[in-house]
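Quick one: structure for this chain?
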Amino acid sequence: MKSVFTFLARDLRGGELSILVFSLILATATVTSINLFTNRIQNSILDEATEFLAADAQVRSTLPIPKELKQQAQQHKLISAEINTFRAMAFSESGMQLVAVKGVTQNYPLKGAVTLSDTAFGIGKFTTHGPAEGEVWLASRLFGALQIAIGDTISIGDATLTVTQALIKEPDSPQTFFGVAPRALINIADIPKTGAVQTGSRVNYALLLVGETDGLEVIKKLSNAEDSPHTRWVGVEQSNQNIGDALARAEKFLLLAGSLSVLLSGVAIAMAARRYAARQSNTVALLKTFGQTPANILWRYLIVLSIIGLGTVITGAISGWLLHLLILKLLANLLPDALASASLGAYFGGAFAGIIALLAFAAPPLLALKNIAPARVLRESDSGALFNPKLAAAIGLSAILLLIFGYSASLSMTLTIAIACTVVVIGGSVLAWSMLRLGKHFAANWGTHWRLGFANLQRHQGFNAVQIMIFATLIMLLLILTEMRTGLIKQWQNQLPKDAPNHFIFNIFNDEKPQIENLLQEHNIDHKPFYPMLRGRIIEVNGESVKPRIETTKSHMNYERELNLTWASTLGDDNKIVEGSWHGEHSPVDLTVSSEQEYAEGIGLKVGDSLTFSIAGQTVTARLGTIRSVQWDSMNPNFFMIFSQPLLNNTATNWLTSLYLPADQKQFLNSLSRQFPTASIVELDQMIDQVRSIMSKVSLAVEFILVLVLAAGLLVLITSIQATLDVRFQESAILRTLGAPRRLVNKVLIIEFGALGFMAGLLAAMGAQLALYYLQTELFELPFEGSLLVWMAGPLGGSLLIGIIGWISTRKVTLQPPLTTLRNL
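Got it. Here's what it folds into:
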């Protein structure tokens, strides 16, 4: 045992193990820091996203929440609060207004805070409790509509309530554009006093929950059970389409980035271990001549691997933890004050990756050293054949796929990366060999240094082809990550531009529409087009009742409720035709309708089907002409059904428009409410602000991950180049001995690495475009945009990056005296 430690200490001091140890430490540290940082960012994003629910989750129902659910919540130690919402008229001495009454328990909200002010549209202050009994908090524009001030009283039904605060923002503000009146927030104990809720009244109930995941899962199963048709579980993703999509795409990107980091780290470890094993060949041969058996050799290197593994994993994990703290400190101004804690699993992810990488990439070549023959000390043999290359590749590929799948939990992502890498390796081997041959042919006419550079590439053709594939895989992964990051952030920015509509005005009747248009024009307020609206539901498909189709769907409520219907001749930019043809301005004589894709798929609608709707007590039949995808997170009004012609002769139509209104023009809403008391206004400022806040954090995580993966990529480059140092020392010594000046040798090295980078970059661009097409269109559901930048950045960036790093890493080759190198041959 003592000799093993002596042997290990000697290799560490001599630098024999430095690359392998550093690769393992950096791999573990990189994965650990990525895990911790992204996990804390994700947890913070989820914490902030839960503010849209004012809880971790909600159980919503059109009937009172069952007592069994409340009892189960108590048994599982979940904190709960209750909300009841309904519509009623609010009366003051000077006016009346339809309001959306929200009765809450005193401990509302469980997450987030209610923002209040002493004046309408004033500067807000936060509170984490609901109003007391006898109090009401009113939305700012109700003060103008009812002509009241703080301290006045209003009546809702039979209850008289004192207005104590202006309600600026509620964490779980309504996320629908339709059917929302200005808010009146009261204590839930005051609801019976109003007398507004009677048998048959339309009331929505919600149970807010906060607690451990296990307890929440129990309530989720109970609320979604088949014998509970009126209750519905609502988590973060279900509560808001914008947040759900942003979180889903961000999570996929972070998992993709972490997976690529694992892959790159594995490649670096494999190359470092192979080089170390090759340099140990003579040592093992000598040990065998001194009587060591293969079993002794195996035991020796098992101990070496154990010590290296334990030391590097612990060091890497601690380094990763410190690195993530350093990053948090550097980004303190950009991160929330109280960042969420990391999950327990995040601390062990890096250590697990390091151990798997050690066993899969470092162990095979080192343990194969026991097969070295003692005759090795007398004659040189191919150390690269110590371990079957095909078996090594199979073990390495299996480990990489296992790590990526374990890290991402996504089979499609794992297979995409595997296929892209396979295309680069198989296709790259042929193309690399071809480019090396062509390069030598053209370089013959470009001067001595070009000829020597390509002669070196041709002389080690097999190894250089492997290096080209390694470099190409690395550059391809970096191109994929960079393009996905750019696409995601661009999509988020386009989704919420600075002038995104933050107000929706609806319930506008036909005779009010021109008046409101004139009012908006007088105040120089730009607005989106006016959309006509009717309420209706599908009752028949091809002459048969739709009920059997609805019964087979997972979400009955989406199909049993009334839809907002419209008609239009032009299609918005956030709608794309999937099947059929758009009716356009010259609509057919027969009435046609366009359906949203997921809605149509849910009940099996197909182009050409005959759909019968019940609208305002009348039946309307239309042919399904198109199915379209809808970008629901665009913040624009969108509809499940769009007809080709006006319905019911516009007799029961009301209109909808949206507009952007800056804070200094908010008083315009009071004027609008007074002139058109039946028109409803929805303010979306708080939702937009929260979405932007979450997206800024996600973008920050994306940027950081890109930097860490780039660092892992540089490690692979340096490790790969370091693996060729022994050969380059010998070649440089021979050239210098034959009279070649140091300047010529430097030029040859730059040309050699630059050419390798150019070839690798060209292959990488090909592989990246193939992978990006699938990732963008299928996995991230983004439009594919072929990028000329990829084709330019691949070859040119690869040539510069690998050329510069290669020259810096091998510069000492020209500094060492040739005699020193030749003595070691």
